[in-house]
Amino acid sequence: MQIENIKTFGELKKSGYQSLTIKQELRKNLITKLKSGDKFFDGIHGFEHTVIPDLERAILSRHNMILLGLRGQAKTKIARLLTTLLDEYIPVVEGSDLNDDPFNPISVYAKNKLETEGDKTVISWMHRDARYTEKLATPDVSVADLIGDVDPIKAANLKLNYNDERVIHFGLIPRSHRCIFVINELPDLQARIQVALFNILQEGDIQIRGFKIRLPLDIQFVFTANPEDYTNRGSIVTPLKDRIESQILTHYPKDIYTSKIITTQEARIIDAQNATVKMNDLSRDLIEQIAFEARNSEFVDQKSGVSARMTITAMENLISNAERRALKNKDKQTYIRVSDFWGVIPSITGKIELVYEGEQEGPFIVAVNLIGKALRTQFTNYFPAPEKSKKIPVKKTENPATSKRVNIYQEIVDYFNEGNKLDLFNDLNNEAYQSALLSIPGLKRLVEKYYPKVSVEEKYFLMEFVLHGISEYSLLSKHILQAGIQFSDLFSSMFTGNDLDGLEEEEDFKI
Question: Of 377, 375, 376, 355, which is closest to residue 366 (Cα–Cα)?
């Protein structure tokens, strides 16, 4: 007989079912999974040797916990995944507002029901997905919301006086008995509300408008918070922090490989977009590198952090930018271009908090500079650094003193120094885009020298990448036009003032 088919308390007792507290339940199932080697935090990457072991220790210790870290560090996702460590179903007294365990009832309703009906008391089965409650802490949250209040309408309908416990309307926390209860952004909760949690965490009793009720609530509390110095809206009061047994520090991915896994997993790219737009690993690395540059930028408020949501939305915008171009040109398929990265600027400006110096620069210019720094950093992973390229011998003679050494980018730079320019407009079709890049002497030959086996599409991506890379190393000038990007010689930009560093208004950048 399947346990879910049991309908009465008597049948439940005969089945040999043993009731556990939620912390015992989590511990039991974690032990089972640790012994079997099963993975239970699916979709969480980069925390294998840091956050997850701390979580496991907290669960084994039967602790309430707080996840402390900057925004976009998967704190809420981790809390929601804790339900996978719960039993699939638990029995409750049917009709109970507090999810009463028939073996250990705490509400007046359940106690009366079991006393009058005994083994015939009807029970229902609560699925683990229903055993998760989440509350975002905001300044307007009240004690009544979390714990409860006297309900005069209920008293009138039931013809009860205010001395009767049944006139109480319980809040979210009592109704989360035998559940996981999560409060997000705990510092935003007013201090007086935080104080109301003291006894619940320590002793399990609550007091509502003069009613001193002993309710041994069985709850796994999980709190999340940004570091206290992130916001001036509030902080965690010390006595409450003292009652939360385990504080677990989260962090951003420590390497681009892990960051790419997270972005690829979370980005909402539909099949139609995947069929239309093709990407390479370099473009994925560039997306992540932008976030890494932002997390080290002097213009970005590091106390606020740079959420992983930035790279996720940037990836979505990057794909959509290329898809838009393909739709306009009626192309069935297109390949990501470096110039498509200027389409991710809205994802950057909306996800970073700037310090005073950054506000002076402006969010748009900061975003452009972050893209530029990402290009510069990744460029040397694929091609020789321009300042070192002069050391590469291209023609050796018997006499080392007469060996010729030349900058491998010199042919490209000379073309622009002769007064030539290259306009790469956003909406160029594939044929026009490739023709524009082929017009640069030595560009294709340089890429083929280092990457002779890449696909045709990736070859053109790398050709454009070279132009962006050497412009970041000040061998060329790069101007952002309304409809695209223009490359020209560096010397002329000193007089025209049209280089990236010379533009101050966002309108000058729009593409």
Answer: 355
